[in-house]
Amino acid sequence: MKTYSAKPLEVERKWHLIDADGQTLGRLAVVAANLLRGKNKPQYTPNVDTGDFVIIINAEKIKVTGAKETDKMYYHHTGYPGGLRSASFKELMEKDPRMPIEKAIKGMLPKNTLGAQQFTKLKVYVGDKHNHEAQKPVKYEFKGENK
What we know:
The chain is an alpha/beta fold. The chain has helices at 25-37, 68-71, 89-95, 98-106, 113-119; strands at residues 15-19, 53-57, 73-77, 84-88, 122-124, 138-139. The protein is built from five helices and six strands. The protein has a four-stranded parallel sheet, covered by helices on one side. It has a two-stranded antiparallel ribbon with strand order 3-4. It is globular and about 55 Å long. The model has no long low-confidence stretch (mean pLDDT 95).
């Protein structure tokens, strides 16, 4: 018996459409990260990008539980002395609603060139319009209590 390893040219990619309306940020990010990595496929190989493309619409309608809207902080450093900047979830949503979703998903991908390659297959849009109708994306249905 031999172990199967996927080859990059053998991977068949699909397009998934996820509606973020009313979804919890972390739960949506886990689903999207698993689809981007290809963990939903039987031919998943950790060192090969076997994942699919993911389109997320209605990014502005994402929700968080508890008091995270005001308490959850996002930090980045400018590179200059005293350059630590912070913004709450609410401030980040007002500035760019795509940012919290992209940051949550990027944090769940590998921290190497493979993770960077997988992250390029993520498309996040504000509103329900996207320009990927030609790829015929399949709508992802959430299982459980959220929709």
